[in-house]
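Fold this sequence, please.
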Amino acid sequence: MLAMRRTPADRSHRGGAAGGGTAGGGAAGTRACRGNERGAASTELVVIVPGLVLLIALMTAGWRIWSVRTQVQDAAAAGARAASLADSGARARSVAQEVIGADLATSASMCTQPQIAVDTSGFLLAPGVQADVRVDIGCTIALADLLIAVPGTIRAEGHATTRIDTFRQRRP
């Protein structure tokens, strides 16, 4: 028994046109429209992978910037708190710098060249007057050592102010 081969005209019961066209979305026309798909997966891979790598690199850069800015802000808050507990302005400056240095070192911060300013002018005021200690930290964040080297640096800054005990004895 020989198998009979159907022609497009015989496939009209599947939704195709009697003339063999693709008006009804028949199977005969689909094969012709698809064409050759060889190499499509590798082409898609070549297009998509660099985009994904770039996206991951940008996310890494964003994470580094956010992380360092958070660490700098936390270090400023810790330094201001430590300075407000000191008994003199000179001691407040040294304690704040020690605490900030230790905080940035402990957190393995990517903060390079930190500049620390401690305003201890509140220690000059008499007891009973409200006074504050302010700490400002600035540092640079290098981005050149990321997966995709981003040129330049970004500056991160942290500021914190803490109240000195109003009725405690103060020395400059």
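The CA atoms of residues 11 and 134 lie 85 Å apart. DSSP finds three helices and three strands in the chain.
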